């Protein structure tokens, strides 16, 4: 499932390519992927322009010239491709937004969605999300304030979107590796120095992952060499049995509350 770095990569790349362009045609092939009748959805978007693309947690927000917004959550298996009839993937597209001779395909939206909201509805939809990890106002003090009272396991707490937004299975493991802390430990037993390590690890891993283009390996457009770059440099995620990049100890895979977690048993304490 795309996490913060993947959605931030999409936001940056799409902002360069579709912002300011009017939508010339809209196609809906799966009604359950949207939140209003297809005829209304098409009517609302036809001729509209995307004025800005924001990100909140694992969501993208396409702000429209009408004042409304499209809220995208790709969920498990969802991705996007920007292209045309000649180079698009041979996959079922649930929604297609056309910008003249270029089209944005939404693929794999079986669990995900593309919903149209006014400003009040959008605020309500996002109201349960925790703070943004990369927000300049999210300091070590606020991090400690949120997590000091937590008693649950690090892995399951970090992926709770109501506690902190944007972290999922991949980056919870990568953050803990960077901090040299096992994902299966509990917040209640951490020392102050370990809180600092987690906070700094979170910032470091996210900046590194965004710079690399996230771990999603489906290209966003033809000749896209940016998207998915982090997949090549993941430290522990999906690397069971491979040698740790720090100490060469084989990476371990465990299942915690139905979630896979990868870590080094030697250099993560």
TrEMBL record:
Q: Where is the Formamidopyrimidine-DNA glycosylase catalytic domain?
A: 2-100
* Lipid metabolism in keyword set: no
The record, for SMART domains, names:
Fapy_DNA_glyco, H2TH
Going by the entry's taxonomy, the superkingdom of the source organism is recorded as Bacteria
Q: Which CDD domains match?
A: BaFpgNei_N_1
Recorded GO molecular functions are: class I DNA-(apurinic or apyrimidinic site) endonuclease activity; oxidized purine nucleobase lesion DNA N-glycosylase activity
UniProt cross-references to PROSITE patterns, sorted A to Z: FPG_CAT, ZF_FPG_2
By sequence similarity, the record places it as follows:
Belongs to the FPG family.
- What is the annotated quaternary arrangement, including any partners? Monomer.
Q: What is the designated name of this protein?
A: Formamidopyrimidine-DNA glycosylase
Organism of derivation: Mesobacillus maritimus
Recorded name of the encoding gene: mutM
